[in-house]
Amino acid sequence: MILFFQLLFLPNCEVPNPDRNLKMKFFSEIFEKIIMCIICRNEYDPETLTKLDCRYCPKLTSIPNTLVNLTSLNCSSCPNLTSIPDTLVNLTKLDCYNCPKITSIPKTLVNLTELYCVSCPKLTSIPDTLVNLTGLYCVSCPKLTSIPNTLVNLTVLNCRNCPKLTSIPETLVNLAKLFCWDCPKLTSIPDTLVNLTKLDCRNCPKLTSIPDTLVNLTKLDCRNCPKLTSIPDTLVNLTELECSGCPWINSSHNSDYEENVKKFKEDYDSLLSSTLYPFLTRKIVKFLIPIEI
Ligand SMILES: [Zn+2]
């Protein structure tokens, strides 16, 4: 990269032709070579390569299926990459963030423990064979309709901004962190997720309740959930709660402001006397701001 800029700003550098277009072509070719990955430059040994980072390569269209020893692959932001080979069976970590041409993740990648398939507009599903996954990050996948219920080892699931997602599988009982905000079709959080410590379900307009079984929650963000009417008083481990923009504390989603204020005061009174109150030390103020009690 440094070489490129040095060449670009050297006034008397030697180029094959002084013509401006040819000069730009020359620099563009150099730049392309600098940012090309080791696959495109053919500078790799398939026998020994275990970790491949080919992010931002503009040329890469495919990954060699001979790389069977790869354990980690980062092919984020490769605009022309169309697929991941199904022969990469030793992969434990795959990051294909922002790959607009990828349509699927091979079901043979059964050793994956971490999968980042964020902003993949053509991805329609996650294979149900990936049972060793502990972290799944499938943020902003507009065609994704479901999360497989076989992924029982997941401890972190980030499925934010998946507009077609309608539910979270109740089998994901090991989940500790769930980020499902901006999911307009999500109607519920399973009451089986008893190991959750962090839940971010902001901006879920169809969500009607938070399960009272989530007793290990320490952080809950449920801002702008207009159908939420209460927060269970069983969540005694909560230390951070963000709930502004919910109609029971704010009139913005409901024309009956007076009724909401009354209801909030009742809820607030009951909150003060509930077992929850001593634990809501850090962000309780967010309860109060919206209606200026
Ligand atoms: Zn490349």
Q: Count up the helices.
A: 4
From N to C, what is the helix and strand string?
HHEEEEEEEEEEHH
Bound molecules: zinc ion
Structural class: alpha/beta
Global morphology? elongated
Overall mean pLDDT: 83
Range of strand content? 5-15%
What order do the strands of the largest sheet run in, or round the barrel if closed?
1-2-3-4-5-6-7-8-9-10
End-to-end distance? 58 Å
CATH architecture field of the largest domain: Alpha-Beta Horseshoe
Could you give a short account of the major beta sheet? Answer: 10 strands, parallel
Residues in helices, as a percent range: 10-25%
> In the CATH hierarchy, what is the superfamily of the largest domain?
Ribonuclease Inhibitor
What would CATH call the class of the largest domain?
A: Alpha Beta
Q: Give the domain tally.
A: 2
Unreliable sequence segments: 1-15, 249-257, 281-293
Radius of gyration: 25 Å
| Quantity of strands, as a count | 10
Q: Under CATH, the topology of the largest domain is which?
A: Leucine-rich repeat, LRR (right-handed beta-alpha superhelix)
